[in-house]
Amino acid sequence: MGMTEDDLSTILIVEDDDATRTFLADNLTADGYDLLVADCASTGLSLIERKFPDLALVDVGLPDGSGFDLLRRVRSADGVASRMNPDMPLMLISGRATELDRVRGFDRGADDYVCKPFSYPELRGRIAALLRRADHRPSHGRLRAGALEVDPPSREVRLHGERVALSQKEFALLRALVADPTRVFTKDELLRTIWGYRSRGSTRTLDSHACRLRSKLGAHGDRYVVNVWGVGYRLLDAPSAAAAALDERLVA
Known about the structure:
Blueprint: E1 10-14, H1 18-30, E2 34-38, H2 41-51, E3 55-59, E4 61-62, E5 65-66, H3 67-75, E6 90-94, H4 99-107, E7 112-115, H5 120-134, E8 143-145, E9 148-151, E10 156-159, E11 162-163, H6 168-178, E12 185-186, H7 187-195, H8 205-217, E13 226-228, E14 232-234, H9 239-248
Parallel strand pairs: 1-2, 1-3, 3-6, 6-7
Antiparallel strand pairs: 4-5, 8-9, 9-10, 10-11, 12-14, 13-14
């Protein structure tokens, strides 16, 4: 088999049956994929948050919950404060083969549903199809605004090529702003999206985090994280700079 883009993909298998998990891992590895394996939902979620797989194969019946629970957790991730990509391709595998079971899987956001026993060549083809389809989805990959680069999956931030250390909430704030550098985000929506506040009240947490983030990104004299008085925050100030950053912004 020749090397393709799919061969570089990382696949997570969440399966509590040792024989099935080993069979899938051995064959997918032989087909050129990088493999992560888990025997329960909690370990699977941890790997999704730390290792950023390109696709997950998840058994519906797991010892500490169900594949539906894992699917719900992934799809409900906000993609900002969470380390999980809510659009990650996810295939359910189950011995439950009724039409109702399959419909429930798709209703909960599964990209595919494979019934046991399955044909490995067919499963391999479905995996390749999901990965090709994922290449055309809006990416949660690297974003750039001028000299600032933000990589959401790894939570790495670089400014003029130098790494910038941010706290979890500082990163979440920057990730929200860099997603649309020409837009002013209101304080209410930032507090709701990042901190889960239903109303602003008298909290100063957003302003304090924005101040620290502005300071860290201003070490070389750059002006990011602009306070729009009485409204909220945006990433860049001057319209010309914002337009240039938007032109330079890329998804890798």
